[in-house]
Amino acid sequence: STRSFNFGAYHRLETIYSWMDTFVAQHSNLVTKLDIGRSYENRPMYVLKFSTGGTKRPAIWIDLGIHSREWVSQATGVWTANKIATDYGTDASLTSLLNTMDIYMLIVANPDGYVVTHTNNRMWRKTRSKNSGYACLGVDPNRNWNAGFGGPGASSYPCSESYHGPSAHSEIEVKNMVNLIQSHGNFKSFISVHSYSQLLMYPYGYTCRGAPHQAELDSVAKAAVQKLSSLYGTSYKVGSICNIIYQASGGSIDWSYDAGIKYSFAFELRDTGRYGFILPADQIIPTASETWLALKHIMEYVRDHPY
Amino acid sequence: EKSFTGDQVVRVDVQSEEQLKLLQVLESEEKWNLDFWLHPVSTELPVDVLVPHTHLAAVKEYLQAHNIPFTVMIDNLQELLDQEKAEMKENHLREH
């Protein structure tokens, strides 16, 4: 039962996948599980679709944990999915949102990497694809999107943690996401969730020039962060990827933005400043709870500003 | 399973452009197998780097030689991972 599931703990992939089945069964009027394809090592990739009916309604995309070692991201995804399902029908704003829009949530965007972090190397970040001529495996899936692919801020060296891969969308995990989003064709918001360093970012990363909607995105992000901070006082920085972290090409939200999904954002969730990627499990629920306030603000804004 | 026994995560609060450049040089040194959790990109952001125990002395020497102040954020990464694993096991048993 999802009632006995411990949302304040880290879980293995099979536990998360098994929880998804129970979750879908318990909220069958709202949630379905879509199989969007297989990973490089043939693991299924599941998207939870929250919908109150209709086909290809305007939709919001949320992916989490594309860098597998960022465990608080996937854990936040599980908590958030549950939050959406339990608040639907009681939270008027979320209910109205789901009465007009769908939410698609990919809780484990890099399942192969996630399994490796539980079995072989807790610090694994990339995919697990083979690199011809090299012993080291994997591509940074957030340098593999067709957005300034191969440009500054991505490495052409296969052993690098930020290796962009042989070609855009060469990673099947990325391709599966791209296929779903393109075939749907009506996504209005695209949100990628990473951790750590407490940032809320918008395009671009592959260039330092401002995005055409920069002023609006900045104002939405600042308001979202204000709500996030209201819970525990967690401090976030807001800005374009290039301006507040570094120039990085081939990133997911640059691709989505250039594909016409205006409300594209990337989160870097909380860090206590002491643990990095090893954020203690007792921080999961506080992290997810504060993130929810920002996510909800963005989603409400998207609902209220159709384009 | 990869062990991180004795590996440390070092935090540098970068104070100047010169220090930033020196850290970028460090980042390009592949022989030390450093894993930058936060990259040297700005004097406004800290730099966190996971240093394998085999290169700890050399990296600290490099930082000290260039007067780059640092603190140890994680003293022994494996200890944290062991705690994390024990906690997961306990949760798993409790759920069952």
Question: Which key features would you list for this structure?
Answer:
heterodimer; A: 307 residues; alpha/beta; B: 96 residues; alpha+beta; four-stranded antiparallel beta sheet; 43% helix
Characterization of the model:
The complex is a heterodimer of chains A (307) and B (96). Chain A is α/β, with parallel strands linked by helices. Chain A is built from 9 helices and 8 strands. Chain A has helices at 13-26, 71-87, 92-100, 111-119, 172-184, 214-232, 241-244, 252-258, 284-304, and strands spanning 31-38, 44-50, 59-64, 102-106, 187-195, 199-202, 237-240, 263-269. In chain A, strands 1-2-4-3-5-8-6-7 form an 8-stranded mixed β-sheet, sandwiched between helices. Chain A is globular, with a radius of gyration of 18 Å. The model of chain A has no long low-confidence stretch (mean pLDDT 96). Chain B is built from 3 helices and 4 strands. Chain B has helices at 17-28, 56-65, 77-95; strands at 8-12, 35-38, 47-51, 70-74. A 4-stranded antiparallel β-sheet of chain B has the order 2-3-1-4, covered by helices on one side. The two termini of chain B are 26 Å apart. The mean pLDDT of chain B is 93. At the A-B interface, loops of A face strand 2 and helix 3 of B.
